[in-house]
Amino acid sequence: MEKATSSAASAAAPSKIGGGGSRRQSDLNRSFKLAIRSLLTSCSKQELAKAFSKFSNAEQESLHRLFIQVITSLHKMLEDEFESLCLETQVGTALETVEQLVEEQNLDPLFSEKSNIMDAAKSLSMEKKNEIHYLTGMLEKAEEQNRCIRDRVELLNQKMPDDSGISVVMEKFKSGNLSYGTCSNGI
C-alpha cells in the first residue's frame, strides 16, 4: 500500500528533470519510471513460496514483505539517482533547447524546402564538377593536338631545304606585283 501511494504521488508530481517542466522532460521521466517498474516488478506470494518452499509460511511471509520493501526502496533510489544525474548533466536544458528548435522548424515555412535546396545545391555542385572535368579533358586534348601540329610543322621545316634563293625570289615577286599595281594606276 505504501508503494502504491508513493508511486502515485511521484507520477502525479510535475517532472523537474534537469530544469523546467517541458513535455519532453515529463515524457522522459515517465518512460524511465515505466522502464524500472517493468524491470523491478514484485513477484507474487505464490512465486516466492515456490522459490522458498523449504521455509515455513511465517518465514515466507516475512521474506515477501522484505522483498517488497527492497523493491520499493530500489525504485525510489533509482528515481532519485536518475533525477540527480539529469540535474547534473542539465538534461532539462538540452531537452528545452531541442523542443525550441523543433518548434522553430515547425514555424519555419522554408524548413521542409531547405533539404530540397541542399539537395539541389549538391546536385548543381556535382554537375559543375563534372563539367569542369569534361572541359579540363577537352583542354588537355586540344593542347595535345596543338603540340602534335607544332611537332609536324617543325619536322616539315627540318625536311625542307633552306633555299634562301626561293625566299628572295618570292620577295621580288611580291614587290614586283606591288610596283606593277602602282605603275598601272599612273598610266
UniProtKB/TrEMBL annotation:
- UniProt keyword terms in alphabetical order: Cell cycle, Cell division, Centromere, Chromosome, Kinetochore, Mitosis, Nucleus
- Which segments carry the region annotation Disordered? 1-26
One GO biological process this protein is involved in is: chromosome segregation
InterPro entries per record: PMF1/Nnf1
Domain of life, per UniProt, equals Eukaryota
Asked whether the UniProt record includes Nucleus among its keywords, one would answer: yes
CC annotations in GO: MIS12/MIND type complex; nucleus
Print the organism lineage. Eukaryota, Viridiplantae, Streptophyta, Embryophyta, Tracheophyta
State where the protein is found.
Chromosome, Centromere, Kinetochore; Nucleus
Q: What is the protein's given name?
A: Uncharacterized protein LOC105128487
Locations of Low complexity compositional bias?
1-16
Gene name linked to the record:
LOC105128487
